[in-house]
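Annex B. Sample input.
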Amino acid sequence: MLCTATEMVQESAFPPALDTTRHAVFLDFDGTLVELVDDPQAVAIEPAAQRELAGLARKLDGALAVVSGRRIADLDRFLSPDRFAAAGVHGLERRRSPDGAVEMLAGPETLDPVRDRIASAIESARRLHLEDKDTALVLHYRTAPDLQDLAERIMAQATEGRDDLVVMHGDCIVEVHPAGMDKGKAVAAMMEDAPFAGRIPVYVGDDTTDEFALRHVRNQGGVSIKVGGAEKTSVAEFRLPDIAAVHAWIAAAS
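Annex B, continued. Sample output.
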């Protein structure tokens, strides 16, 4: 089932080739490196695509990071045995190098009242699925698109009066996490340190939550790439039509 949201101005130029001597690459995970599926735990990256991804990280001297709404532990599991620098839960988790420690910018207790309200509310709407990422809560309606309004209403009621939280709407999801962080800020923070510092940022993503990073990278003179067809408008300057095109573009890196 397709769930889409729109943003800003669309352009459709094919992106330039990656220059591994100059670029720092930031990649979304779901919808960019792997196909979207009904069960978030059932995703899988093609072995050949993963080999190309690991090869690109080596060519970039490590200046490659996966930037996702998922937890870094989940990304590691899906990409095992490879490990990459990463920003998880939209930057609330951060690992600046593949073998580095995961930095946590917030604790799960921040969301305890919201967690309880959502759990109570969906008892009578069992086709909705709550994914608990500790520092973020995601209400999925991919298998029940007719319940989108209900999911959004439940989240709005559960977060009422909480100015310290931000609610984000993505592809068949509505998510809440502590305010003050998004994928754009995560990319900006990672660009301050080696091996990313001094390189030109490249960001590739498909979802509305990626627009923060796409906007930041474009404003910084980098390469901003939206994944998807014309139904997904974006601030990005460039476009790749689908996941297969993303992997082909990665494989062609010099």
